[in-house]
Amino acid sequence: MKITRITVYQKDLPQRDPYWLSGGRLRFDVLDATFVKLETDLGITGWGEGTPWGHTYVPAHGPGIRAGIETMAKAILGQEPRALDHVERAMDLCLPGHLYAKAPIDMACWDIAGQAANLSLADMLGGLSEEGTWIASSVSSGEPDYMLGIIQTYRDLGYKVHSAKVGGDIDRDIARIRHLERNRLPDERILYDANRSWTRREASIVMNAVADLGITVEQPGETLDDIAAIREITTTPISVDESLVTLQDGARIARDGLAEVFGLKINRVGGLTKARRLRDLALAHGIQIYVMATGGSVLADTEAAQLAQTVPLAFRLGTWACQDMLTEDVAPGRGVRNTNGKLTVYGTPGLGVAPDEGRLGEPIADYRI
Q1: In angstroms, rounded to a whole number, what is the distance separating the alpha carbons of residues 140 and 122?
Q2: CA angle 230, 234, 236 (to 5 degrees)
Q3: What's the CATH number for 3-118+357-368?
Q4: Distance CA 74, CA 110 (A)
């Protein structure tokens, strides 16, 4: 089997409400999504998606995905899509770095491989668990009662896991965390995500001030060096997200004991081919995992749910459903959807969802052999 055609679509995905990142530093209203269709000479078609969380959050943006695919197209065409490591190597040689631009191609190849084998991605990745994965809400930064109101909205949808954005003012952060913990339900879990907004001093003050609560803080510093320094002077458990990009990052985190949790974002690390290695590294070191997309439609959510459902329950902390935050649905009635606060995949071959092409508009690029 050979890849014979790559078709690229761009689609704006408006959010239901403006979203403020930690400390109100960044506001997002619309996500720039790229959808990729891979066609093969055997008639099997695979779909991929790349939707960064805005253009200014981390080094990843929508136009960069499309430019990267243009650069890599000749190296991708003619490849055997089921030879996933070979496709990965071809992209890495053609375009060093830029992992987020490779993730949609990787997703589409996994989709094709699964369909060809009549297996779900989860079964291809090691085995599908019957138990679905709790969805973690994403709670925009703001005053304590405002944030609690968002959590209540998600409770009404069945959510029991929440990711609350903190950062910006350490006194307010301490108040936010204590207020949300006082109002947390017994069967709920709240992850407090600083999104790199604290300095080392600020992180140590906040994390030590709330150490009695037994919470987990995500990405309290900008870099792994910052997190290593914070780790030495705090006891609050840490999740690493934005600084977990490469296998080398994961190896350092595990070796040096920098974090108790991996926030594994599939698009950020370059796709499922690379993400599965980080999953295995975490499990080998007793590190728990959130598996998520960086944002996007039901396609991205379904990919994350597929990988999440291969992680043993004791290590699987949650996933995300960005689709619940959007006003546009590119695949109505398809893919995994929130059911009582969980995303569950059931073994449909391949990714298990394809978009309605009519909702994507006209292609913006078309590459063929």
Answers
A1: 31
A2: 110
A3: 3.30.390.10
A4: 19
At 157-194, the pLDDT tens digits run: 999 999 999 997 999 999 999 999 999 999 999 999 99
Confidence of residue 22 (pLDDT cuts 50, 70, 90): low
Backbone phi, then psi, for 157, in 5-degree steps?
A: -95, 0
- Of the residues 11, 160, 265, 342, only one is catalytic, namely 265
Q: Annotated catalytic, 37?
A: no
Pairing of strands 238-240, 216-218: parallel
**159: number of CA atoms within 13 Å, CB side?**
25
Domain boundaries in the chain? 3-118+357-368, 123-343
pTM as predicted: 0.95
Residues 138, 142, 143, CA angle at the centre, nearest 5°? 125
The strand ranges marked E within the chain are 3-20, 27-40, 45-50, 133-134, 136-139, 161-165, 189-193, 216-218, 238-240, 261-265, 288-292, 316-318, 342-343, 365-368
Which of these is catalytic: 37, 102, 160, 165?
165
177: nearest Cα among 153, 125, 213: 213
* Tokens linked to 198: 């604290």
* Cβ-Cβ contacts under 8 Å for 12 (sequence gap 6 or more): 30, 31, 32, 33, 328
Residue by residue, DSSP assigns 228-290 as HHHHHH--S-EEE-TT--SHHHHHHHHHHT--SEEEEEHHHHTSHHHHHHHHHHHHHTT-EEE
Catalytic, 165? Answer yes
CATH class of 123-343: alpha beta
